[in-house]
Amino acid sequence: MGYYKIKNLEEYFKHYKKSIREPRKFWGKIAEENFIWYQAWDKVVDFNMGEADVKWFVNAKVNITKNCIDRHLAKRGDKTAIIFEPNNPDEKALHISYNELYSRVAKMANVLREQGIKKGDRVCIYLPMIPELAVAILACARIGAIHSVIFAGFSASAVTSRINDCECKMVITSDGGFRGNKSIDLKGIIDEALEKCPTVEKVLVAKRTNTTVNMEEGRDYWLQPLLDAAIPNNVAEIMDAEDPLFILYTSGSTGKPKGMLHTTAGYMVQTAYTFKNIFNHEENDVFWCTADIGWITGHSYILYGPLLNGATTIIFEGIPSYPDFGRFWEVIDKHKVTQFYTAPTAIRSLAKESDEWVDKYDLSTLKVIGSVGEPINEEAWHWYNDHVGKKKCPIVDTWWQTETGSIMISPVPFVTPTKPTYATLPLPGIQPVLMDELRNEIEGNQVVGSLCIKFPWPSMARTIWGDHQRYKDTYFSAFPGKYFTGDGALRDEVGYYRITGRVDDVVIVSGHNLGTAPIEDAINEHPAVAESAIVGFPHDIKGNALYGFIILKEIGEYRDRDNLTKEINEHVSSHIGPIAKLDKIQFVSGLPKTRSGKIMRRILRKIAEGDFSNFGDTSTLLNPEIVDEIKDERI
Ligand code: WTA
To answer: 599 with 592: CB under 8 angstroms?
Structure first.
């Protein structure tokens, strides 16, 4: 018997024990029995956690797209691989079969090679949620180019810094993108971004909005004519297990975004395994994850995980509120979706609308519903369970991160009894531990601590692009020998985990990770600003929103505070993106600081939350009087 599918709770415990006692046998067997390899590995895993040095399936040779596409062709060639559901419900949905996906990816791979892209080159993909996005990613993987997808909501300067960080040679974008009743000028953003990107030689432009765009001679090419001229066959590059597959940027608690690097074989094995189990995937299912492919959730559970399992996966271009609040439920009804995977922020925003929206559609095809990206509060959990799952679909509350590559802690549906707001139990192979402030492992149950993982897992990020030291410092130094997640968690009386939230300076707003430092950096660049501190505070829909405490320079022309608030937010929007806008801005005359000059964010967080009960020890503050002033003027 293999370990690929967990059938019941007894088996879960059996697999779990095996995976801890003999991780090499456990993952080795899964890898051997469920994928095609050009060459097997010498060793399942080789690691030194202290050095943040991890390798899986050492010396094996593989191509992930052979596993996502080619091997399904004999049995599932005509099966739908991707359903494209456009932004506008009046536009026809597109069904792309595995055969068609093969030829599309082959053509795109040939175009990339013809345009000078080789194994190891970085390709930036800045596209809306259209089939070309999936095809471009897979084509990169086909020829061994490293894809760096940038969410198409990021501003030009955010794009510039990401392209320059990993020195992309090419950008794949589109004329524009649709989002609800808006259309976004993506090519214009790329043009602006590329003014400061010396490494980019070529830009391939897909057509989506049919808007007129600037095409720079010798640099920009329309994609379609190149594809039309390409051959629909392609020999995949033979990749080493540890060859880079992609870079994906995530916010850090210091200024620069971190380019998390994922490699080939380990990522492949664990995304496939988790998809199969956590969504209980069966052959005729239709899987829908509403994330954007620009985030890790989309990489792992719109594309790689589903395709590795020969599944049918939906790419949805739209938003939950367009043309009305029934849109998600209409799509489930229309495509007979069997698994639905979304974020708490979307659930909360739809739960506040009339229940008629969800009740009027047929959701009876659903079997499993999932949540990801932030803690799901009890109220949202129940609404999701009652109105979407109709109390018959297990909710998989899946905890994981860009860094972990795939799901780590989650119920296995029909196996693990669920509990509202709990991500429950670790997947086989995952060894979570809770740590106290003295860096000791906390044993037993009914305890809280910092969540760490003490043994490597196949899909973990291998490094931060170009900065291994930062990778080590950020994740492996707080608790030596262990991976520190940055999250706090509690373990209940039966050993279930509940993630309580970030313990660092990252705030999750509407499911997006935002480091407060880069936002502060952007604000501080405004000519009227002397200094700023950003903290998160609870928000009904977004989970958290941002509160800014800002010290102004003495500049007369900025006396109009309302205007200044607007200007600062525009500044944030153009430096980082609209998702980073502040909900509240308070102008202050000082910030609470320790004698060493560190801002006491703990106090600011309490003020932002409106909790004035206990500021803890303020004796180390250099300027304790400022606390009352800030508190009294809170907005
Ligand atoms: C948070 C998204 C509670 C957590 C896949 C983590 C969650 C961060 C959950 C990673 C969950 C994700 N319950 N919190 N089910 N899932 N988080 O990198 O703080 O965008 O560290 O990856 O989201 O966000 P990222």
So the answer is: yes
The string of pLDDT tens digits covering residues 420-451 is 999 999 999 999 999 998 899 999 999 999 99
Instruction: Look up the ipTM and state it.
Output: 1.00
Q: In the beta sheet, which residues pair with residue 148?
A: 124, 247
Question: pTM to 2 decimals?
Answer: 0.91
Closest CA to 73 of 100, 110, 35: 100
Q: Is the CB of 373 under 6 A from ligand 1?
A: yes
CA atoms of 129 and 389, how far apart (whole Å)? 26
**Helix, strand, coil tally for the chain in percent (to 5):** 35, 25, 40
Alpha helix (H) ranges present in 360-415?
Answer: 378-383
CA distances from 221 to 30, 203, 214, 537 (A): 43, 6, 11, 45
Residue with tokens 């066959």: 233
pLDDT, one tens digit per residue, over 139-187 is: 999 999 999 999 999 999 999 999 999 999 999 999 999 999 999 999 9
Report the amino acid identity of residue 553: K
Tell which atom from ligand 1 comes closest to the C-alpha of 397: 15
Q: Which of 249, 271, 372, 381 to mutate to test the pocket of ligand 1 (most atoms within 8 A of CB)?
A: 372
Burial class (CB in 10 A: 0-12, 13-18, 19+), 451: buried
Which atom, in ligand 1's list, is nearest to the CA of 512? 20
Which long-range contacts (C-beta less than 8 Å, at least 24 apart) are formed by 629-633? 629/588, 629/589, 629/590, 630/549, 630/586, 630/588, 630/592, 630/604, 631/607, 633/586, 633/588
Task: Identify the structural domains of the chain with CATH numbers, from first to last.
Answer: 9-489 (3.40.50.12780), 510-633 (3.30.300.30)
Residue nearest ligand 1's atom 6 by CA: 401
CB atoms < 10 A from the CB of 294, how many? 22
Show the tokens assigned to 248. 């994906």
Across the chain, mean pLDDT equals: 95
